[in-house]
C-alpha cells in the first residue's frame, strides 16, 4: 500500500482528520508527509488541528509549507518553550510547552481557514456542561492516598530520575482512579436509567471502567451498544445505526479514543464522562458525537469528578491546555466551562460499593451484543490503484435492490437535515 501511494502522482490530496499527523516520529506521519508534499494541491481537514499543544501543529504545517516556520528546532524553541530536561540520567528536549502564542496565531491565520461551530451552525441547540463532584468511600480511596504520598515523597527528594518515576506513577494513579470510582459510576448510570425515555452516551478510557459501565447496564436489563478498540469499523457502523434507530437501545458505552471521533449519536441528549482524558481536543470531540447536525435538543454533558483522585488534577490540566489551544487557534483564551452540581445531591455516590474487575460481564457482552459484518463487503484500499476488472452483467431482482437500499439508507427525522462529516 505504501509503495502504491508513493508511486502515484496525485494532482490533489485531501487529508481528513489531519491532526493524526501530530507526531513527528509516528509511522503514519512519515508515510503521509511525502504524499502530501508531492501533490500539486493539498488540503488538510480537521476540527481540532492541535489537541493540546503547539508541537502538534508542526507536521501539518510542514506537509503544506516545508520550512515555512523554520526547522523543527527553531519552531520548538519559539512556540513550544523547548527546554532540556532529564529523563533518568539522559538529557532530552522537552517540547510540550507553549510560548509566543499570539504570534503563532497570526502566522497560522495566513495558512489556515478556521470556522467554529458557533459561527456556522447557529441553530444548533447549546451544550450544557456540569461537573458532578463526589467523595469516594474511604476503602476505595485508600490505595490512591498511598500513591499521592509516594508522589509527594518523590518531589521532596528530586534526583535525575524523578521525572521518569513521576510519569510512571501518574499512569498508575490514572488506572487506580478508574477502579476507585467505578462503583460510584455504576450507581450514577443506574440512576439515569430510571428515566425510561432517556438515551445517553457514556465515555470512558480504561477497559476496567468500560467493563463496570457495561455491568451497570446489564444488571439493569437495558439494551445497549459498546464500542471500544476491539470493534471493527464495519461493526461500528451497524452499532451506530442500532443506537440511532432503535428506541429500546438506550445506552452507548464508548471508548474516548476508539469512538470519540467520526461517529454520530444525535439520538442521545445526554453525555456522561465516567473518566477524563489527557487533552481537551479528545474531550470536545467526544462531546460532539451528540452535539452536531441533526441534534434537535440541548446536549447535557455530565463530568463525574471524584474528589481526592487524579480527576481533580486532570480537570485543571485540561483547562490549562484549553487556554493554550484557544490562544493558538482562535486568538483567545478558552476553558471547559462547566457548572458545578449541588454536592449534596450526589452524596449517595460516596456510599457506592467498591468494584473489582471480573470476566463474567465480558462473556455476556460477547453473546448478547455484537453482530458480525460480512467481511466480503469490505474493500482493500489497494484495489483502487489496480486495473479495473471487466464489467459483467449482474441481474438483481427488484425486491433485493429495494431491500438493500432500505437497509443502507439512514432516514432523518427532519428532511431538511443531512449527515455531516466530523470536520467541525
UniProtKB/TrEMBL annotation:
Start and end residues of each Helicase ATP-binding domain: 1-67
GO terms of molecular function: ATP binding; helicase activity; hydrolase activity
Chain ranges of the Helicase C-terminal domain: 184-340
Origin: domain of life: Eukaryota
Region (Disordered): 401-424
Cited SUPFAM superfamilies: P-loop containing nucleoside triphosphate hydrolases (SSF52540)
Name of one Pfam family that matches: Helicase_C
Keyword annotations: ATP-binding, Helicase, Hydrolase, Nucleotide-binding
PROSITE patterns: HELICASE_ATP_BIND_1, HELICASE_CTER
Residue ranges the record marks as coiled coil: none
Bias kind Polar residues: ranges: 407-416
Keyword Hydrolase: yes
PANTHER family found in the cross-reference section: DNA ANNEALING HELICASE AND ENDONUCLEASE ZRANB3, DNA ANNEALING HELICASE AND ENDONUCLEASE ZRANB3 FAMILY MEMBER
The protein, known as: Zinc finger Ran-binding domain-containing protein 3
Protein species of origin: Macaca mulatta
